[in-house]
Design goal:
Blueprint: H1 6-28, H2 36-47, H3 53-60, H4 64-76, E1 80-85, E2 88-96, H5 98-120, H6 124-148
Antiparallel strand pairs: 1-2
Helix pairs in contact: 2-4, 3-4
Length: 149
Amino acid sequence: MEQDTFPEELADALVGVQRLIRRRLRRDMPAPQLRGAEVELLRLVVERPGIGISDAAKELSLAGNSVSTLVNQLGRQGYLVRETDPGDRRAARLLPTPAAEARLSEWRTRRADLVRRQVSRLDEPDRETLLAAIPALRRLADTLREEAE
């Protein structure tokens, strides 16, 4: 792999793996089918219950009205509750429902099982290489997040 093509090849590989994982999980998960942005928002709200729409939009690098649309969709599906923030009556806090927590738990379990099965099919040097790359990939994610802020 050439140094000048490395960034593009890395990005393509990461996107490709994520897309394939998402498609495989979506196919096997019970209805309703959730899009990537819906899952990302659910994950964020489960991790940070009470987060506001504007903070969620900033965290996910989405427009506020896009997050509001996602909140409405997930609310209709029984996954999110929007409450008025007692500290600021104009703002809303987002809370996950038990159904959202159960769905994400199932999703995480299925994702881990899928990746575990596929990684086990690789030879030992490839598994070790992937394991060694995790800290660098996390640092890359951190720098991308910092630059977005």
